[in-house]
User: What shape does this take?
Amino acid sequence: MPEALALPEPELGAAGAAYERFLCEVPENGDDYLRTDARVRFEPRDDDVLLAPPRLTVSDSAAGAVLAGGTLPRAVVVPGVPHERVAAFLAALDGNATLAEARERTRLAGDAERALLQAAFGIALFAPHAVTALERAVSGAEIVRFPGAPYEIERSYWANMAAVRARLGELEACLDDARRSFSELSKLHAVALVGEDGRSFYRPQSRVVRRGLLPGALWHAASRTEETSEGTRLLAGPRVQAPLIGGKGYAELLAELTGDPEATLPSRSHTDEGLDWGRVVTGRAEGDAAAGPWFCPPRPLTLAHAESLFGALRRAVRAQAKDDQSAVLDGLADFHQRFVRLHPYRACNQALAMNVVNAVLGRVAGAGMPHLVLDHVALRFAPPAYRRLFALAARQWCVEGAPAARLTHLLRKKGDYFALVGRLAATSDADAAAIVARTSPEAARLALLDFG
Assistant: This one.
């Protein structure tokens, strides 16, 4: 019988208890699962130097102060706060004053400050020095599914991903020892959730977080299902959403072009080199509105899984040292696919996996890439097909350059991608999807559709 993977429980002490209270007391932020909605998530802090656009004007209205002019996309209303108080606060932002100093000078505090920051921060008030420092540590474009404004990224998440990136050398130094590598990976998982100092708390969007989340702890529970006259019932254990992203026509075309038609089947078991790598099922659990496609990770987690996982990363790192980009991409594709299929932690698996991937990818491609929907694709496609999709994603989405120019380029790609995928979602089969995709060949490649 394969040797089970056993690691000591993480010792978080007071940080673990505080994080548990945080999960219980702080409400979910209402984000959709893919976080495609554009809204401000980055919060200002007292030591941030705040700046406003030039030629910003403040006027009065029955609702409160109105900010307009400059480069604002729209007028910003600060409800309940007189325009004189907002104008005085903006005047205090001389390029050197921190939020705390501007507050002290103008005595704008309490409800008035909260109203101003809630309405204007990330739209008419900015913290460019804080954003630049984080961008230098790890690019915001490499820690999100789809690129957007930096203020759309939750600050604690960005800071924690920067801390993870800074510590990746400790993982790379022990890749010959799979058990030790998993131990280092678990330490990184803890950093991703509570930060380097144990006080930077991040709440993943996974629904499983509602039932608790211990940073750095492996999730050993097995998925349990049963077949009934009404279909598959999911009884307990881990399950990951595995929808046909982009609709039936797009999914079938993607499977056809990669030579893996089984990728769209309602059920599929994955094995590789004698190891179980999970299965796709279509079913429902108690409380689900309807049956849907789910991925059940392999259990038990074994030492053989760990050796396969870190063996792939070791291949990528060694190929990077030889500047063998093709071998790097193959190794990273295998590592990423095996990681998301193992789903070793209750949450934050994809974010951690892509942080590791992008650290290595950036050394050979000049930059990493957004997460896209690679984790969903990895759950369904066979390894050879996934390697092709991963390599295409890297070729299309790894954009070099200064942060502002890079983000501008990525946002154009994002717009083209969503425009095409929106049209593909209306198609019913691969043939119809191919007709649509061929009208926009560059966007098709962004959507991982390669007609050769």
